[in-house]
# Entry
Amino acid sequence: MLIEIRKAGFKNKGAELMQRAILDKVDSLYPDARIAMAPSSASATFEQRVRMGFYQKAWHWKYGRQWGQLASLVPKKLREMYGVVLDKEVDFVLDASGFSYSDQWGVSNSVELAVASNGWKKRGTPCVLLPQAFGPFTTRKIRDAMIRATNNIDLIYARDERSYEFLISVVGRRDNVKIAPDFTNLMAGQVPAYFNREEHKFCVVPNYRMIDKTSQIASGQYIPFLVAAVRHLLDRNAKPFILI
# Structure
């Protein structure tokens, strides 16, 4: 079985944690499964994908089209030599985008999902959107794309009530749209030997997306908010530490 993990990566640590949680669960349930990932210089380098043992899925989204299908012109034996697989060879798709389908990320991600899911449905390839954030969806193109995608995808999990409401406000209540919490807590954590529980009691995790993907007002308030939160903890001897 060839399983594609879609839209995860290494640059964003939350995305990497989702990816590792998926691998951990797949390995326990389907130890013989092969894992594929599409190339993405923004989230996963070739070296990182190879180190994880991933097959390289031929995929290149540009100008509203999927150009990776041109790799089918390469003989299969040659593709196998380099670990390259085609979209049509994938048996199961797990989308771990985290937060890609919304106004904030523009129309491209949602349209890509709609086009890709159409191909999966035609080929009978199951697809599950793992718990993630959705919306809001206010532009016509994004709303239309999400309706098309929802028509094609087997299961879509919103990870919170607000995301669920954003989604069903566009696609309506459906049996394949459900709510499920974040799944990264399925992994057993490993506490570093150097970690001092007495000196590190409260963890503060900065989120860069609060700076580059929010309004100018919200972005400008975020760092002062973090500073105030840390000072509040320090004043109470709560011993915070920052996790990058």
In short: The first helix runs from residue 13 to 29. The two ends are 36 Å apart (CA to CA). The longest strand covers residues 127-132.
